[in-house]
Amino acid sequence: MELATLERLNACRQARIPAVLVTDLGGGHASVIAEGDQLHGALGEAVAAAFRSGHASVVEADGGSYFLNVHRPPRGIVIIGAVHISQVLARMAALVGFDTRIIDPRMAFATPERFAGIDLRSDWPVDVLKAKPLDAYTALVALTHDPMIDDFPIAEALRRGCFYVGALGSRKTHASRLERLKAEGFPDETLARINGPVGLNIGAVSPAEIAVAILAQIIEAMRLRDVASAKGDIR
């Protein structure tokens, strides 16, 4: 692989931009196609299908044979609120393979002792997410019950197309949340993407059980979206 090709692939990885490494099996030449690049013909269609499925493959297109190796950003979870649920959810999410970080400006909650080994940011979400924005490969879970902390990251998750958006709270709390977000200009179909109350309805009561319900719903959203995307439904 040429140095320029490797540098572009690494740049895509660092920017969390999906890319396909296209290698001509006849001549050995390799090139990087980033998501959003224009590529026409049968090879372009094959690359688009690879982005949707996420799977490597060998394709015959435009008179040649090509190996398509897909590089998609690792899935991540951003948890707003250093609460009891977060302590369990962060550990379980790491075991499943998610890159996890917790954001909470309340220093009494966001302590290293309570979240050892977890990427913990004791700052306002608006500042943290400005430095490291959300994206389509990230799930956002808001758990503080405080609109001053939760509302901005929820709105940002909707704007950025996070594959999962969930928020803790009763149905009454969620209805109030929707009214605030609607006042910001979000249409009903976009607001319908918010999972509130958060988590699968398994009758969870304890913080650990609620964490299980949330993680299960995130995995469901991730896997079902992958299946839908493989069929051409990119949301």
Structure, described:
This is Xanthine dehydrogenase accessory factor. Pfam families: XdhC_C (PF13478). Residues 77-218 form the XdhC Rossmann domain. Helices cover 43% and strands 20% of the residues. Helix 2 runs antiparallel to helix 8 and helix 3 packs across helix 8. A six-stranded parallel β-sheet has the order 7-6-5-8-9-10, sandwiched between helices. The chain has a four-stranded antiparallel β-sheet with strand order 2-1-4-3, sandwiched between helices. It starts with a helix and ends in a 5-residue tail after the last helix. With 235 residues, it is α/β, with parallel strands linked by helices. It is elongated and about 60 Å long. It folds into two domains: 3-71, no CATH class; 76-228, Rossmann fold (3-Layer(aba) Sandwich), CATH 3.40.50.
